[in-house]
């Protein structure tokens, strides 16, 4: 079954999507969409894509595609995805699904109504350790979840390993609410919240949050970018089963380029899950090892990529997970965390 794929948005992560999908047998990259003609032409030439369109409407009018991968900036997800769903196209959307819960919920409802495959790219779901840890918790390896601590640590505001943030639009827009950014909370907070709650197998029922934005340039401005999006976030969360946890994310974690970590404890054991220095790992203290506080590495089988899972779902070979409903749930949690911070860290029901 050949799947004809359109790539919506050709900057940032789009090259990763093009390479990931083109490596799958039976997937054909047939078109790209971007409002920037030069960017679009260069992208299509690089990836051997025959058609290019300046708008979603033009692409839909052409119509010769089955599925869409949406790699537009966060603020454009809602406006660009909804017409594709109305046209009956399967959609993989980059995270976050939208920039507010109302839009995310509308997208989830539209996708369900259209009866199409819909998935959100929470990329750390590709991690073998995350998948194995979630399986172990679901199977009761650590008993009932009682406590957890989770972090997403980056340091690109303190060093130029990924380029000089103060000179490059790909980083500056992430620091500006006027350019659609929800700061570290929306950008990477969504990943660590999914990381923690997916492994725990429970939804968050309430949240208390604090956000901080630090001075990074004279007058808080670089060119057209007002640097007002949050740089650090801390949250306290209660899960449906009663467990308490702390979650934090920051751009200022010197010594960590892009690291996620979860420590989760139940009444029968504990797990330590990480994605650090691009390596996924899992350790457990369960069974008799609890008596001596001994931790052991756990083997984790490789898992298919989000690109493979999206295509498999279209072909009816695998479930569409995580779907738009999951993206909407996470956006509700993010919105409530943002509201909590605005209200001085008040505990709010999700």
Q: Mind explaining what this structure looks like?
A:
It contains eleven helices and 17 strands. It has 350 residues and is α/β, with parallel strands linked by helices. The strands form three sheets. Strands 16-15-14-13-7-12-11-8-17 form a nine-stranded mixed sheet. Strands 3-2-1-4-5-6 form a six-stranded parallel sheet, sandwiched between helices. Helix 5 links the parallel strand 5 (90-94) and strand 6. Helix 5 (101-114) packs antiparallel against helix 11 (324-342) and helix 6 (128-138) packs parallel to helix 9. The longest helix has 19 residues, at 324-342. The relative contact order is 0.16.
In short:
The protein is an alpha/beta fold. It has eleven helices and 17 strands.
Helix count? 11
Round the Cα radius of gyration to an integer and report it: 20 Å
Tally of DSSP β-strands: 17
Q: In percent, how helical is the residue content? A: 25-40%
* Helix and strand run: EHEHEHEHEHEHEHHHEEEEEEEEEHHE
Q: Shape from CA axes? A: globular
The end-to-end span amounts to 41 Å
**Overall mean pLDDT:** 96
Main sheet: strands, sense, barrel: 9 strands, mixed
Strand order of the largest sheet: 16-15-14-13-7-12-11-8-17
Which secondary-structure class do the elements indicate?
alpha/beta
Q: Unreliable runs, pLDDT <50, ≥5 residues?
A: none
Strand content: 25-35%
